[in-house]
Design goal:
The chain is an alpha+beta fold and about 280 residues long. It is built from 4 helices and 17 strands. The chain is flat.
């Protein structure tokens, strides 16, 4: 832990104890931080000599910042789904790999930003467009007949993106679709599952979509909306996180890459410099 405020600002130490509070505020005792002196009476029964004793006092949790033991950066705790389905806590900066940046973020910082600045003449680095999020959507219309397909599709998306997807009913009601209790209408399933990779902790998801998904995807023709590019995947087997022996059916996905670019041309150039192939008309 790193102390970020107070007289011991800048000091590091490990957490010795978490002190509960009735008001709900979390306080911590950090080794070698916030030292106080107390006069103590001798107690031979408890092997206490007595005298002036120096010990650590508690700190409020808002006064300290977590430090990753692998990369050494100040960070927050993120969550990641492993290949065996376990959910573990990882560093948001290095994702437990000991690296400060993912491959995609490193390429963006060192190559894409200078290229875009030269192309469009940005005067402020904050004006350079970047990838805001990547939304992966999977249609599960066959779940109207078998509700277990929802769990299977959600599990596959969780393995691909590294975070739990959101399952939701379709907004459009199709009376022709037959469900377990009759036609799919209000309150009956015509579902899909979606997962959005938006934070720095999910940069590996964006890198995988760029590195392996675009090689077998339907080639993106261009931006379908301002600063947004969409393309389709025919199946989920191109991702190494998916076990081929456990796949019951090939399911396609729609991938939407949302950027902070102001125009379609800026969004196209951003994705081209990152490495996404575009079909030339």
């Amino acid at each position: 832990m790193l102390v970020i405020t107070g007289k011991d600002r800048g000091k590091k130490g490990r957490v010795l104890k978490v002190v509960p509070s009735k008001s709900g505020k979390v306080r911590l005792i950090v080794e070698g931080v916030n030292l106080i002196k107390r006069h103590t009476k001798p107690n031979p029964g408890k092997n206490i000599k007595g005298g002036i004793v120096e010990r650590e006092a508690s700190l409020h949790a808002s006064n300290v910042q977590l430090v990753c033991p692998e990369c050494g950066a100040q960070t927050r705790i993120g969550h990641k789904m492993l290949g065996d389905g376990r959910k573990v806590r990882v560093c948001r900066k290095c994702e437990g790999s000991g690296r400060q940046m993912t491959r995609l973020k490193e390429k963006y910082t060192k190559e894409v930003v200078p290229a875009l600045t030269k192309e469009f003449g940005y005067k402020n680095i904050m004006a350079v467009p970047k990838i805001h999020k990547v939304v992966v959507n999977m249609g599960l219309g066959e779940a109207t007949a078998n509700a277990k397909i929802i769990e299977t599709g959600a599990d596959e998306l969780a393995r691909i993106t590294g975070q739990k997807p959101v399952t939701r009913r379709s907004k459009k009601i199709d009376r022709a679709v037959q469900g377990p209790q009759g036609p799919a209408g209000r309150g009956r399933w015509s579902p899909c599952a979606a997962s959005a990779c938006g934070s720095s902790s999910t940069g590996s998801c964006r890198s995988r979509c760029r590195a392996c998904a675009t090689s077998r995807a339907c080639r993106p023709r261009g931006s379908t909306a301002a600063a947004t590019t969409r393309f389709g995947l025919k199946d989920q087997l191109l991702f190494p996180e998916i076990d081929y022996m456990k796949v019951d059916k090939a399911r396609g996905m729609n991938v939407s890459v949302v950027t902070t670019a102001r125009t379609d041309e800026e969004a196209r150039k951003l994705l081209q410099f990152i490495g996404m192939p575009f079909r030339q008309n």
